[in-house]
Amino acid sequence: MTISDIQDQIKASSARAVVEKVIAKAREKADYHALLNLTEERALQRADDVDAGKITGKLAGVPFVVKDNFLAFGAPTTAASKMLEHFDAPLQATAVEKLEAEGAICIGKSNLDAFAHGGSTENSAFGPTKNAFDTERVSGGSSGGSAVVTALDIVPFALGSDTGGSIRQPASFNGVVGVKPTYGMISRYGVVAMASSTDVIGSFTTNVADAELVSSIMAGCDVRDMTTLPDFFQVQTEVKPGQKIGLIADFMTDGVDADVRAKVNQYVDGLKAKGHIIESVNLPMAEYALAIYYILVPAELSSNLARYDGIRYGHRAEAVKTLAELYGRTRDEGFVTENKRRIMIGSYVLSSGFFDAYYLQAQKARTLLINQFNELFKKYDLLIGPVAPTTAFKIGENTADPIKMYLGDIMTVPTSLAGLPAISVPAGKSDVSGLPVGVQLMGPMRSDANLLALARSMETI
Amino acid sequence: MTQITRDDVLHLAQLSSLELNDSEIDGLQVDIGNILGYVQQLNKLDTTGVEPTYQITGLENVWRDDTIIDYGISREQLLQLAPESDDSQVKVPKVL
Q: Block means of pLDDT (10 residues each) for chain A, length 461 residues?
């Protein structure tokens, strides 16, 4: 279901009728556990305002869903955690405000790994989201709920956040388009912070044109997020012929399932048939990207999550006698094990005596990785590869071994560390399992529009 | 492989203001040791003379006018978010 399909329905009936239908469908599909809370009352009120002509804009009446780490009115912002289970935000994320200013209607908040720590939504304090194609499998994560509501055609678009692959991997697992924009393209104000140097927010849609529309609305400078870049995103009608594309050989090894590689190769053949030039390239630092990521991200998030102390908002432990006990018990009760694991790793790598060996070495290694990307972009317009080494895995399959779970991020973290735009687009279904496979297009900073234009030219409807 | 003792786990928990359940400590000891072992592969890299990355957009000195942004949020609204408040102040247990 595309945005224009929904707009046709609104024209033929009313915004209220459409929003009621969407909410009914969300309830009907409750078994997937993609949504944590509906924002029904507020959504219907806004729909009435659209019908009365009080709300207008490019997305007037179009329903959408936000990952539940976006502050948005109408239901608590839980971050899928006990810590924020009852947290009603007093303000909204800039991205939500911008979409609402164009008339869009948020109908609910989707499930995620608690505080976006994970790659399957199995770390949600409220239970996992099921895959849209096979309910015994994971949705991917951490933005699993947003991917599934889009894939199930509940809403035409949903928002997610991506720190190391959290939009791209669930998009791949559920056969939808997932966009991780250039770092700084879209304001993160009002989104629960994880790792500030790689956090970005982006969209899930069923086609590329909708991603372009939503991105163009959300992009731009925000005085409330001082890392935002001046707006550079301009939808590119057509892709220039003869794009030079590097196929990352390090991502096409035995470590990636053969059925995934087969679909990527098929997509590459399609690009060649359109006259683009594909060459195999090497990104040797990719081997180290996951190690860099699992030093820097825990370090940053251990600082960002220090704010959850049970004092000003969120959960507070009961029957405690001292302040230290209040902090310790509140955080023990409010965080899931994966949150604690990452916070403690962060504390370790930032400790005096270990800082140089871990954090500083990782930041230097990050420079080497960025340099390799820069070298490649002197010769190539963009890079291509798989999104994840596998299709959606079974619920419970990887939960016993955190490193096995982390390895699923191996092809998405390099671009996160470099701040580059990367999108996951459907590349068909696995010949082995019939599950969706995504292909990843990655470009230099600010090349978002080119990646999307190329992906759009490859869509077969 | 990095040896992480039970005492190390408790020390890290204390640094992180986490009062762990006994049931979680053993698992975290194994996992944290494994993860630190994994990330140590970075020691193989020669980074002599390489500048660390501190930011990736190239933005420098982002200024804004020194004016108060009105977020439209009242003191009462913020106090309502606090788990416990009294006489328009956030209430906490005694510190000492």
A: 98 98 98 98 98 98 98 98 97 98 98 98 98 98 98 98 98 98 98 97 98 98 95 96 97 96 98 98 97 98 97 95 95 97 97 93 98 98 98 95 90 98 98 98 98 95 49
Check CB contact of B72 with chain A, cutoff 8 Å.
yes
Mutation pick from B4, B18, B81 vs chain A, by most beta carbons of A within 10 Å, is: B18
Nearest to A365 among B18, B28, B42 (CB): B42
Residues 6+ apart with CB under 8 A from A295: A345, A349, A358, A359, A361, A362, B39, B42
**Is the residue at A261 inside a domain?**
no
**Domain presence at residue B18:** yes
Domain encompassing residue A38: 3-218
Q: Shortest CA distance to A416 belongs to which of A307, A294, A299, A304?
A: A294
Residue B36 domain flag: yes
- Is A228 inside a domain boundary? no
Domain of B38, in residue numbers: 6-44
A92 touches chain B (CB under 8 A): no
Provide the 3-class DSSP secondary structure of residue A67: strand
Mark yes or no for CB contact B12/A344 under 8 Å: yes
Q: Provide the token pair at B43.
A: 């020691």
Q: Judging by DSSP bridges, how do beta strands A382-386 and A244-248 pair with one another?
A: parallel
Task: Give contacts of A 188-227 with B, CB under 8 A.
Answer: 197, 223-224, 226-227
- Token code pair at residue A408: 């699923």
Distance CA A73, CA B13 (A): 34
CA dist., res. A76 & res. A96, Å (int):
15
Q: CA of A404: which chain B residue's CA is closest?
A: B35
- Give A127's strand partners: none
Specify the CATH number for the domain of residue A69: 3.90.1300.10
What φ, ψ does residue A161 adopt, rounded to 5°?
Answer: -125, 150
Determine, yes or no, domain membership for B16.
yes
List the one residue out of A352, A433, A355 whose CA is nearest residue A133. A433
Which residue type does A236 have?
Answer: Q
Residue A429: CB atoms within 10 A of its CB come to 16
In a domain, A224, yes or no: no
Domain-located, residue B86: no
b/e per residue, B37-64, with b = 16+ CB within 10 A? ebbbebeebebeebeebeebbeeeeeee
- Indicate the number of domains in chain A: 1
CB spacing of B15 vs A351 below 8 angstroms: yes
The nearest alpha carbon in chain A to B71 belongs to A91
Q: How far apart are CA A429 and CA A436, in angstroms?
A: 4
At A434, list the tokens: 């019939």
Examine residue A441 and state whether it is found in any structural domain, yes or no: no
How many distinct structural domains can be found in chain B?
1
